[in-house]
Specification:
With 329 residues, the protein is of the alpha/beta class. It has 11 helices and 12 strands. It has one domain: Aldolase class I (TIM Barrel, Alpha-Beta Barrel), CATH 3.20.20.70. Helix 1 packs across helix 10. Bound molecules: S-adenosylmethionine (SAM) and iron/sulfur cluster. Iron/sulfur cluster binds next to helix 11.
């Protein structure tokens, strides 16, 4: 059985963007009350007394938009200082990096993923649901700032949507040629915006890869990370290209992660809506952490079975009702 040692932690469900594929503007989302969100202290108790004793050593902070959380720098430092932490990374939309990247670096963070679906300001604004002054330039400046400060690895997450940004595959891939940046193409999933998904469908990684290969050639990068990405590089380039093919390939057998939502639900599989544990209610109800740990251990044992079961039924019926921002992408 795969060792499950990687926890993705959503710190907040709110976001300053409304990406079409994640939390479309037309859709009314019921945000959590701040009292429903795990506090820093509750999160650290769960890490120290539940997850770390069960063997978790790798953590990713995400959301919603994690940079909206005011205690993010303290959370980073506390997690980095846990002796068992082998790896801490953050996923952000990058909009607030211009002002916050240095603070995050000083707090101890080194690994960062920034979502960037377009190099065209108009397309970018269309994707993120922005109707006011373009937000692309500030996001781009934030990415540059993070690079100059020394975040390494710096990864860019890209979701390609047919007829929206599929004309930019080569431009986005080219970012890796002269910079030590790592572009990750993530297949569009039927989570969040079901209408957009049915209307536009999705592009399999293999097609994206073929386009890039036809232009420059592609070689395997022989890198194994925490994740399910297949990693390649354009010959002689500084950075790499990753393809995360959760729609076209089943990598459940390689899956080493579980997800903790901002309101404390532990979710063993991204595509599973049923088997979850409400850790916040247990913790606030005064259940001792040893008992909580036992429940989590039991859920982890079930994970391989859950992965396969839900993947099949979920994909056919489009039954994923929570958005990535709610689950913790
Ligand atoms: N707000 C941060 C950001 O955008 O990077 C972190 C949270 S976001 C939910 C994490 C990742 O989920 C982003 O890279 C986003 O592109 C991805 N995502 C959201 N909805 C998706 C969908 N329906 N299909 C594929 N990826 C999705
Ligand atoms: Fe916000 Fe990230 Fe979702 Fe976009 S993908 S709406 S930035 S949480």
């Amino acid at each position: 059985m795969n060792k499950i040692d990687y926890l993705r932690i959503s710190l907040i469900d709110k976001c300053n963007f409304r990406c079409q594929y994640c939390m479309p503007e037309e859709e009314k989302l019921n945000y959590l009350l701040s009292s429903e969100i795990l506090t820093k202290s509750e999160l650290l108790t769960l890490l120290k007394e539940v997850f770390i004793p069960l063997g978790f050593t790798k953590f990713r902070l995400t959301g919603g938009e994690p940079l909206l959380r005011s205690d993010l720098p303290e959370i980073i430092t506390e997690i980095i200082n846990l002796p068992q932490t082998k790896d801490l990374a953050l996923t952000t939309n990058g909009y607030l990096l211009l002002e916050k990247a240095q603070l995050l670096f000083d707090s101890g963070l080194r690994r960062i993923n920034i979502s960037l679906d377009s190099l065209n300001p108009q397309t970018f604004d269309q994707i993120i649901g922005n109707k006011n002054k373009s937000r692309w330039h500030k996001t781009w400046a934030g990415i540059q700032t993070a690079y100059e400060i020394g975040f390494n690895p710096l990864k860019l997450n890209v979701v390609i949507i047919p007829e929206v940004n599929d004309g930019e595959i080569l431009d986005l891939a080219a970012l890796t040629i002269n910079r030590n940046w790592h572009v990750r193409f993530i297949e569009f999933m039927p989570i969040g915006n079901h209408e957009l998904f049915s209307e536009k469908a999705w592009i399999p990684s293999v097609e994206i890869r073929q386009q890039i290969k036809a232009k420059w050639g592609l070689e395997e990068a022989h890198i194994t990370g925490n994740g399910p990405a297949d990693i390649f590089k354009i010959p002689d380039s500084k950075g790499t290209l990753g393809f995360i093919s959760q729609m076209s390939e089943c990598f459940c057998d390689r899956c080493n992660r579980v997800r903790l939502s901002a309101d404390g639900w532990l979710r063993p599989c991204l595509l599973n809506e049923t088997e979850q544990i409400d850790l916040k209610t247990l913790l606030r109800g005064g259940i001792n952490t040893q008992k909580i740990r036992k429940k989590v251990a039991k859920l982890l044992l079930l994970k391989p079975e859950i992965n396969y079961k839900e993947r099949d039924s979920g994909t056919k019926n489009n039954t994923y009702y929570r958005t990535m921002s709610q689950i913790g992408g």
